[in-house]
Every structure is written in C-alpha cells, then in structure tokens.
Design goal:
The chain is an alpha/beta fold and 372 residues long. It has helices at residues 14-25, 36-56, 69-83, 99-110, 128-134, 157-166, 235-250, 252-270, 297-303, 314-319, 324-328, 333-337, 350-371; strands spanning 2-3, 61-66, 90-94, 114-118, 139-145, 170-174, 190-194, 205-210, 275-276, 287-291, 307-308, 339-343. Bound molecules: pyridoxal-5'-phosphate (PLP).
Length: 372
C-alpha cells in the first residue's frame, strides 16, 4: 500500500513504539498509586508532558492529557462557557473548523450560547474585517484552527488572538495538524493537539492552557490532571505521545524540507489539469487537496485500492456527504465530488509518491475518456 492519508492519521514512529513497549509489557503500575512503581509511571508521564509542552512551544501555561483532541476541543469550548462571566456568551468560529469544534458549538448554541460561524474566502482564509465586526464586549472565545485538516490552509492565528484579546476574549487554536509541522505562533490561550497526527499513538490528545485561561473541570472523578480531567492516566499513551512530540521537534526542519520536496514531486508527477483547493501560498504543503473537472473522486479511490488517499476529512469521506470545508470555499457539488486529498510526510518516499500520482493522473484521464 502507498499511504497518502497523513491528515487522517500518521504511521507510528519506531521511536514512539519503542518508548511505549515497556509500559505495555512490564510496567503496568497505576501512575496514581503511591508505590515505587506508581511513582516511576507518574514520573514518566511528567517527562512526556514536558515533551509535548516543549513541542507546542508556548510559554506561561500548563498541559493536561485527554483521550483525544476531540475531547480537548469539547473541554475547551464547554468549560470556557461554563466559567464565563454573565454577558459574555459569544463564540466566534469558522465554517471550515473540524466537527469537534462545530458540533460542540452547535451543542452550546442549543443551550443559549451566541455562536457566530464566519464564512471563509475562496482561498479558505478568514476575513479579518468580518471577524472585527463580530468582536465586542460580549465575545467570550474565538476558535480557529492553525492548519486545516482538509485543505491545509494556514490561518493567521497570532493576529486573530491579538484581535480577540483586544475585545477581552480568549482564543482557542486547534493545532492538531500543525504540531511538529509548523511553529505554533504566540497568542492562543488554549491549544488542542493529538498524538496520532504526529506519529504517536491513537487515543491520546492534550489541551494546553495559558495560566488563568483554564476551562472549568471537564471529567469528574479521581481528581487526576489537577482535578480538571479525572481518569487513570495511561503511561504508555503519554510516553508514546511524548516521544513522538520530541522527535517531531528534533526533526522539524528536516521533516519540513522533506515535505516541501514531496509537494514539488507530486505536482510534477500529477501533470496538468488539476486545480488546488484553498490558498496555494498560505498552506502546509503536506496537504495536497485538488480537483479535476469531470473526475469522480470516490471512483478513483475505488479504482486504486492499493493507494490510501481520501476525499476530504476521514469523517466526511465515510458519510458520502459533500465536505463542509469544500462547500465553505464555494465549490459546487460537482467540484467537491471531483476533489481528492493527498497527504504525505516524514515516511513518504519520493518514488512511491511519483508512482501513486502518476497512477492517479492516469486513472483520472481514463475516467474522462470513458465519460466522454
Ligand atoms: N482537529 C483536527 C484539525 C483534526 O484533523 C482532527 C482529527 O481528525 C481532530 C481535531 C480530532 O482529533 P482526534 O482524532 O485526536 O480526536
């Protein structure tokens, strides 16, 4: 299989798997128990916490592990609303956010929050003037992701945070696709990240919180994670996430250059006739979302079963619904249906990418011939 679905999940780094192994096979103590083994597990979790915080790179905050980035985003949104002062109940977000944000906002709106979902331009970028028009003393939180999972577009998060702060609001950044790939800019008060998007294990995420911006506790029980997110921590998942974060930080430049080269390689191998969805310049280049007139993306996926690629987000792809992100760019049904997302990164070899892209392009031309 040629794996080109790096936005859905990433291969586990051998270093992360090796770091996890002892915590799966031998070191099974509960990290919250007072035995020597418990203390050892607890210490390993603290090392991992520092590694993830260091990869995020923001100062003046703390980090709590969660079961996923979805949980971290739910917590950030719902816990911030719970702590809000009377009169501040507006949440502003973008039409291209992940379902974890949009559906949490929908849930909050049903319970009285004043949710504003801003449209994006054809390039997928936020319109800062529209944002400015919605910001006032009623605004509680602005939630914008740094790198979009479907189209790779990079939002100006520092500027958004600066504007939010001027109105006395907080800024939540979904940095799931950005961690280890681009620097997370200063500004956000809350940052959500996920282990499996950075070559770590699935089933673990984290919420970074600037001091003073901590949301209300989310999961109640044994008081773990400073009483904010109860539940026995998993040393193996934390250690794997930590090792993956350290590796991503250590290799950031190398991985970035590799991805830039892969992008150029893919563009050459695909040939002409394709249009890139979303901004070409303001984007992370490990995400190549593109369309071709007359192509049926789902049929291409079915024709090329030994290449793993996708139509959009993993969730939207399975449902048969047109992607809300492509719709937000103004693409019509036919254009959205003719779109593909190729995602590549650290372990993608140029030769396999060329092979896959040439076969995708050939299959697309074949479809055109048959439909002509
Ligand atoms: N946010 C973005 C941008 C994502 O790509 C994803 C994963 O698809 C998530 C949030 C949710 O992450 P997790 O799988 O850890 O719940």
């Amino acid at each position: 299989m040629i794996y080109l679905d790096y936005q859905a999940t990433t291969p586990v780094a051998p270093e992360a798997a090796a770091a996890m192994q002892p915590w799966i096979e031998e070191k099974f103590a509960n990290p919250h128990s007072p035995s020597r083994w418990g203390h050892e597990a607890d210490a390993a979790i603290e090392v991992a916490r520092n590694q993830v915080e260091s990869a995020i790179g923001l100062k003046g905050g703390s980090l709590a592990f969660t079961g996923s980035a979805t949980e971290a985003l739910n917590w950030a949104l719902k816990g911030t609303v719970e702590k809000a002062k009377p009169g501040r109940n507006r949440i502003i977000t973008l039409a291209t956010e992940h379902a974890a944000v949009l559906d949490s906002c929908g849930w909050l709106a049903e319970r009285g929050a004043d949710v504003h979902i801003l449209p994006v331009g054809k390039d997928g970028l936020i319109d800062l003037e529209l944002l400015a028009g919605q910001l006032d003393e009623r605004t509680l939180l602005v939630a914008v992701m740094l790198i979009n999972n479907e189209i790779g577009v990079l939002q100006p998060v520092s500027e958004i945070a600066r504007m939010a702060h001027k109105a006395g609001a907080l800024m939540l950044c979904d940095a799931v696709q950005a961690l280890g790939r681009v620097d997370i800019p200063a500004g956000p008060d809350l940052v959500a990240v996920s282990g499996h998007k950075i070559h770590g294990p699935k089933g673990i995420g984290a919420l970074w919180m600037k001091k003073g911006a901590e949301p209300a506790p989310f999961v109640h029980g044994g008081g773990q994670e400073r009483g904010m997110r109860s539940g026995t921590q998993s040393p193996q998942l934390c250690v794997g996430f930590g090792a993956a974060a350290k590796l991503a930080q250590d290799r950031a430049d190398k991985d970035f250059d590799h991805v830039q080269n892969l992008w150029a390689t893919a563009m050459r191998a695909l040939g002409s006739g394709w249009t890139i969805n979303g901004s070409v310049n303001h984007r992370y280049r490990g995400n190549l979302n593109l369309r071709r007139e007359g192509v049926d993306g789902a049929r291409l996926i079915a024709d090329l079963r030994d290449i793993a690629f996708s139509l959009g987000s993993a969730c939207a792809s399975g449902s048969g619904r047109p992607s809300h992100v492509l719709q937000a760019l103004g693409l019509n049904y036919r254009e959205a249906r003719s779109s593909l997302r190729l995602g590549f990164g650290r372990y993608t070899k140029p030769a396999e990418l060329v092979d896959a892209c040439q076969r995708i392009a050939a299959a697309a031309r074949e479809q055109e011939k048959l439909d002509a």
